[in-house]
Design goal:
This protein is of the alpha/beta class. It is built from ten helices and 17 strands. The structure holds ligand LLP.
């Protein structure tokens, strides 16, 4: 296939999903949703559906893709700080399981849309738990200064408002503290916050049917081949051991990256090798339009030369786009590299293809299944 393109290893996706199955086995009140923003490629969705995962959406477009891929509306939750009226209507008309509501203003609009469409909305409030996930600055979400969620001191009157509405069914609370979290500490802190909050709400007679702890489990970008499947057991055990769930209460998860990151890689070809006075560049045909994470977040992806077995040398692996941030890796150690070599940029299955753009009038990257 013409480079650059994404290549997906469905065998690895299957093994990853099986590891999730094992880690949640026996937990009847747990529901794992896949955060489809990580990757909505139709090559992957059927496997994810077969393993019984639901879908976490953040736009009307994602709701449509999930429904088209055969997910049942009752398995879909809808989050996001800025839901447009048409997106709310689509969600109501499809009968999705739950809205994760992020502000009082949004609650008012959802209630109004329900009145107009004569529908009821099941809602949970997204709470900003003020937990520092110690992750990349661009992807932290649970701190008080972030735009996401409702701060705890402002929560009670909004819950009361929902409880009083005949159009709204209050289901519970939603939390998401950030992404690419590899240390279990922040998840432990999250459990403690949730426990505290649940106790204090119950004292006031407020009961939660659903607790949604979001996503965020990270993957190993540095050594993907040694660590292809995240430690789901350790992650789920945190919640199993630390969260005080009530009888019959549902626990929801929304994992994106941990499900799909390792099963995808971006395949690109070396166009030119250019020796500067200071650095040597391997100029490849993929750019940040295909995979924006290094340019946008300073994220590291392991880079492999699939063709050459020469002596190791250092290269700056850069793309063709007219911006100096179009760099996949500085000082990447690769076997001696020449024009025509195939390069794999690893761990690109999550937030790769879904964040691609057409800047410089480039085509969106196509994809294929690894043989
Ligand atoms: N739930 C909510 C409410 C979220 O905002 C997100 C991700 C997830 C679940 C899934 O998080 P995950 O399990 O994938 O960490 N583009 C960035 C990541 C942005 C994450 C946004 N929210 C990146 O490339 O690193």
């Amino acid at each position: 296939m013409q480079t650059p393109y994404y290549e997906y290893d469905l065998g690895l996706l299957e093994s990853t999903l099986a590891a999730i199955d094992r880690a949640v086995a026996g937990e009847r009140d747990w529901h794992v949703h896949y955060a489809i923003k990580a990757n909505a490629n139709p090559l992957l969705l059927p496997l994810i559906r077969q393993h019984g995962l639901g879908i976490d959406c953040v736009s009307g477009g994602e709701i449509k893709v999930a429904l088209d891929a055969g997910f049942d509306a009752s398995q879909i939750v809808f989050a996001g700080v800025g839901k447009a009226d048409w997106e709310i209507d689509l969600a109501l008309e499809s009968g999705i399981a739950c809205f994760n509501v992020e502000s009082e203003a949004e609650l008012d609009v959802i209630e109004e849309r329900c009145r107009l469409l004569d529908r009821k909305a099941h809602i949970a409030f997204r709470v900003n738990p003020d937990v520092d996930a110690h992750t990349l600055a661009g992807i932290t979400t649970g701190k008080a200064e972030n735009k996401f969620g409702i701060e705890i001191p402002m929560l009670r009157p909004i819950i009361r408002k929902a409880l009083e509405s005949r159009y709204l069914v209050f289901e519970g609370l939603h939390f998401h503290i950030g992404s690419q979290i590899t240390d279990m500490g922040p998840f432990i802190q999250l459990c403690d916050k949730v426990n505290q909050l649940q106790d204090s709400l119950e004292e006031e007679g407020i009961r939660l049917n659903i607790i949604n702890v979001g996503g965020g489990l990270g993957v190993d970008y540095d050594n993907p081949l040694q660590n292809m499947i995240p430690d789901f057991q350790a992650y789920f055990d945190v919640f199993r051991n630390r969260l005080n769930l009530r009888q019959g209460q549902q626990l929801h998860f929304e994992l994106g990256r941990a499900v799909v990151a390792q099963c995808g890689r971006l395949i690109t070809r070396v166009l030119y090798v250019k020796q500067g006075t200071v650095r040597k560049f391997a100029i490849v045909d993929a750019g940040f339009t295909d995979l924006i994470r290094p340019a946008f977040y300073g994220a590291h992806h392991s880079i492999v030369n699939l063709t050459s077995h020469g002596e190791p040398e250092k290269y700056d692996v850069v793309g063709p786009i007219c911006e100096s941030s179009d760099v996949f890796g500085k000082d990447a150690v690769l076997p001696r590299t020449s024009r025509g070599d195939l390069i794999a940029i690893m761990t690109a299955g999550a937030y790769g293809e879904t964040m691609a753009s057409c800047y410089n009038q480039r085509r969106l990257p196509p994809s294929e299944v690894k043989e």
